[in-house]
Design goal:
elongated, homodimer, mainly alpha
């Protein structure tokens, strides 16, 4: 069901500027997408800590579902062209290439959504070894976008 | 399944300072929980916009699942006593009462988790009228905490 939904939503999730949310200021888009990534990073960090220490199936499953729900939430709508540069004190690390290479963005986004949903699925098993493998793949799919479309930290 | 999980996790989700995440700085706790609420507010806003305008079942379902996943994610761990006050430029609106009334916190947290999971369940139906009712209940459960434990905006 989760997987089915994610496929149905991939178009919306990855379409980026074409589906940019109406009525939302670009600075609010920047802050909202950064909030989503920050909260997701916290959940990824919990999974990592569980893999490296004492493994709690429920905690990992809840974290993995939060990561997947974020991936499925259609964050492409938070990337209008106007949100591609710093606005006052609101800074963004997105590269201009993000808005120039929609096909490439789609590719990395589809991979990320697929791996995140698979992470939530695998987490149901409660098998740390399987989760570890899929956690690695999910992290790689995050990195796939960072490497291409995110500027290095200043 | 989602509901079952949420019940299993309620203890972790609401325990607050008792389960504060080890190794996390209080200012990072403040920023991470605010990120979670901000991203959730975006998803609630999408549901509201769909109820008031053109209703897209997939968008509402994805948003509701993101809200529920956030509710189930164990944010109680982001409330150490040290995170109860402003730290440098990192401001928090949490009231001291939050740390003094754990039973009351538990009550509002349990209500919020229950309503958010129910929202995700009802969204599967694709019935705007049913979603509208449950969206209202979920909003009330958010307000239940805001009224008691969040300071007014300055």
């Amino acid at each position: 069901m989760q997987i089915k939904l994610s496929l149905a939503l991939i178009a919306a999730a990855v379409a980026g500027s074409a589906l940019a949310q109406q009525g939302m200021k670009p600075e609010d888009m920047i802050q909202t997408r950064q909030a989503g990534y920050k909260f997701m990073a916290w959940n990824m960090g919990k999974i990592k800590a569980n893999l490296e220490g004492s493994y709690n199936k429920d905690v990992v499953l809840a974290a993995a579902r939060s990561v997947a729900a974020t991936a499925n939430s259609g964050m492409g709508a938070l990337y209008s062209p106007e949100s591609g540069k710093d606005i006052g004190h609101v800074k963004t690390r997105v590269k201009p290439e993000f808005f120039e290479q929609p096909e490439e963005v789609k590719k990395v986004a589809v991979a990320y959504i697929r791996e995140a949903n698979e992470l939530a699925r695998v987490a149901e098993s409660g098998d740390p070894a399987a989760v570890k493998v899929q956690f690695g793949k999910t992290g790689e799919s995050c990195k796939g976008c960072h490497d291409k479309f995110r500027k290095d930290e200043k």
